[in-house]
Every structure is written in structure tokens, then in C-alpha cells.
Design brief:
Layout lengths: L1 E3 L5 H11 L19 H9 L2 E7 L5 E9 L4 E8 L8 H10 L6 E6 L3 H9 L3 E2 L2 H11 L4 H5 L1 E5 L6
Parallel strand pairs: 4-5
Antiparallel strand pairs: 1-2, 2-3, 3-4, 5-7, 6-7
């Protein structure tokens, strides 16, 4: 079952993010990886900045996957899409993504690490396309607040053609 996450879910959301983000260790640039990958204060800041989380609840009523969406005016950003390590490759990510996509009328952008090939393949399998390098840099600078190093090591995927 998919449901809107609540304020009392913040700790569990944070646990899911940090569990799933271990997949990045040794894959993304060392200067971009840290443990914990995201602390609760940073997560709460993201929520305060408008990231709304949807969660997938298993048969035991446990939150096992999360995906955030952030409205940025003319586009929406998928933010922090993670599934617990022991639940990966079971369709949870696709269910969450489809749930979010069905509720949006504006273009959706997804930023991820260039070296996270599995994530890129996941989004492409779900109908998203890689932006060109020039478009990626423009979109990251316009819609995200990330350091230059992260811009250099990331990609952007989109589900539809965007206006310049």
C-alpha cells in the first residue's frame, strides 16, 4: 500500500534513506559520500523546503520504501527515492514512481549520480530520458541547490521535453 508520509515517519524515512544509500559507497565520488548519508536535520530541512514523501507500506504495516516529490513551479522534482536493501528489486520503486507520476500534470525531473548506473536504468525503464550535458547543467542550476561538484557528477532525467 502507498500512503502519504506523516511527521511521525521522519525517523523511519531517514533509516530507509541511509540503509539504501549504502549502495553508493565506493560508487559515487568519495568526496560526495558520507555516513550517515543524510542526517535527520538535513531530512527535516528538505521537508521544510517542500519535499513531500510518499511511502510504501508492506504487509506488516512497515514503511519499506519512500519517494519524495518537490514542486518547483513549472516542474516537479523526484527527491530521495529509496527502498530498504532487503526489499530491492521487488517493484516497490516502480509502484512509488508510478503513484507520483499519475498525480502530476507538469514535467518531472530526476537528478541522480552519474555513476549510479542501476538508478539511471531504473528511471529509463520507467519512461524517463537522460538530459544532454548542457541541459543537465542548466536544469541542476535552475531547480536544485547543490554544489558545483555534485553538478559535475550527476545526471538529470526527464519524462517530457522541457521549455528552455
Amino acid at each position: 500500500m502507498i500512503r502519504l508520509c506523516r511527521s511521525q515517519d521522519v525517523e523511519v524515512i531517514n533509516q530507509i534513506i541511509n540503509d539504501a544509500a549504502t549502495a553508493y559507497k565506493g560508487i559515487i565520488p568519495e568526496d560526495r559520500y558520507q555516513e550517515p548519508y543524510m542526517d535527520v536535520v538535513e531530512l527535516q530541512h528538505e521537508i521544510n523546503e517542500g519535499v513531500v514523501f510518499w511511502g510504501y507500506v508492506d504487509a506488516n504495516d512497515q514503511l519499506v520504501g519512500v519517494m519524495g516529490i518537490q514542486d518547483k513551479g513549472e516542474v516537479s522534482l523526484i527527491r530521495h527515492a529509496y527502498v530498504r536493501t532487503n526489499q530491492r528489486n521487488s517493484g516497490i520503486g516502480s509502484k512509488l514512481l508510478n503513484h507520483i507520476i499519475c498525480r502530476r500534470e507538469k514535467p518531472i525531473l530526476i537528478g541522480t549520480w552519474e555513476s549510479a548506473v542501476w538508478a539511471i536504468k531504473f528511471y529509463e525503464k520507467n519512461g524517463f530520458n537522460l538530459a544532454s550535458v548542457e541541459e543537465k547543467e542548466r536544469l541542476l542550476r535552475k531547480h536544485w541547490n547543490i554544489p558545483e561538484r555534485q553538478i559535475q557528477t550527476s545526471v538529470v532525467l526527464h519524462g517530457s521535453k522541457l521549455e528552455n
